[in-house]
Batch of 4 targets.
Target 1
Amino acid sequence: MRRTEKKFDAVAMMRSIRDRISAEIEGMTLEEELQTLKGEAATRYHAFAELQTDYVRLREVHARVEAELESTTLERDGARALLAEERAKTFELVQELESVKRLVPRPQPDQPPA
């Protein structure tokens, strides 16, 4: 069995984040470090809130599209049912016309129409 290559490595990602933050706060006082970390947390919080809002909007759009698709499908199915009914009625009318034609005698070429 062939092993697939990992595309996402959580440990490597966490280490890279830790190293980036360590490089940014190196040489700062504790108060400066705390302010920097608070600022990053606030920025991430706002980004997360925006993502949540976008997610809610996408869910609403998805629900509208699904409803429209369902409505279109129902309309199409209804049109198909009506078409089938009309075909059945037409077939019945043709059958009835054929039976009436059999009952009515055809005029002979030498006889004038009645």
Target 2
Amino acid sequence: MTQPATVLELLDFPPGCDGDNCCERARVKCTIHLVDDCDHPEAVSGDEVVLLCQPCLARVLGQAQKFLRHTRKWRRQHCRVCFSPMVILSDIVREVEPL
């Protein structure tokens, strides 16, 4: 006898990852500041919320670290639009919550 499906399974939860060409299930909700584009009309408070799997989250965190190293090299420490700081990782990847 099979187990009845849970409501979340019927709703296809967790949803798919928002990463590029990724077919994995999302595991975290990630809030990322849209550096130098935070005045975009679709941006909520200058941030983008994406659902990511663990490998895509690792890639996003690595890209943010690389970006911070690059901006430190040029002594740029803020977003050009909202002037929010860009010094530590949490200035760009603002929140990561498990689903």
Target 3
Amino acid sequence: MERSLRFSYAPNLLYRTINTKDPTLGSKKGFMPVDNEDYQGALREHNSGGQPEEFVFAVVQNVGRGPATNLVIEANITCEIALTP
């Protein structure tokens, strides 16, 4: 499921989440992941050869005309999985 919203204090930024089984985002054009500890962990988990996992990424898109500067965004995503027997 993909959801999107705009920040009231920054109307030129669009926030959304994407779900993928490929954390390299190779099939997604125009995405540039932030190479931090969380992203490196996702890559390690993906390359471990275990059971396929699904990854959730927060995406911030600048839909304005100029660059977005002095921007700090923290995203916490909580996933709940319901399994039926």
Target 4
Amino acid sequence: MSTSINYLLKEISEIIGPTNLTAMQSLLILDAVKKAKNIHQSEIESAFLEGKNEMARVLNALPVIELQKTGEKYYEEKYGL
């Protein structure tokens, strides 16, 4: 499954097409993309944990395996990144 960050990069690349960036510009863009992906991953992991905790609180009946899953593990399983 693709993340919204990957989708955005693909769409922008198709719209802009080939560019003549300097080495520094390329590095800055790559750094910004990496930071955006890390932020996005943290948001997904946090949302997963919040949902899991709320579900456990309300139902108090989640299978043990689901209660032990971390947000990071969920993200890796879902997005494989």
